[in-house]
Amino acid sequence: MLLNENILRKVRKALALASNNPSEQEAQSAMLMAQRVLAEHGLSIQDVQESENEQEKNVIHEHATEYGKTIWWKKRLSAIVAENFRCFSYINKRSNASQIRFVGLDSDVSLAIEIFKFACETIQYHLSKYRQELKESGYRKVEVTYMGNDYLKGYLRGLDQKFKEQVEKNNWGLVLVKDALVVQEHESMNLKKSKPTGASFGGNNGAYERGFTDGKSFDSSRKMIAN
Prior knowledge:
mainly alpha, three-stranded antiparallel sheet, 9 helices, disordered C terminus, DUF7168, DUF2786
């Protein structure tokens, strides 16, 4: 059975929201939304899965950032998002510039990039707020930079931990397994191992813990389901 692409997209995004939402109530609402859409069209989850198997699978590469200097935390963020949305992320270089790209099935890549960009905006907002607090507290410029990086390191760790806990809680491990074609495409690229970040850290536990807490509070719900 081949399903209308719009129906399939809505159901998949609702299921993705349910698996990654930190709020149990919102996760349940997302599942109900998926069930409602299926019921309206007389379909089941099995129909959706069969449709995915019957449809031609398109593995695509799409950029999430423009060419320029790739900031270390965005590179790390892209890897976290990719892992939780059945994709791979990588850095594509051109001359002295680089950009972040995702590779995966077209619908997965589209969602991953949407979440990645939303997460970037959220992180930049919280980082700016935290750095301003440090400045107002009298910290020197170099201290603000180091502690800001400690904050970012904690934020990314918290975000990664939140995703892992939600996957385990909802038994979504198999749902997030990457398609064999995606794995094959990634392996054929023969990407070089990433170099260590050149960012400077201050080792401030308070900054790290503040970031960790904010990272675990990240809510992607308003970006997960398209109208």
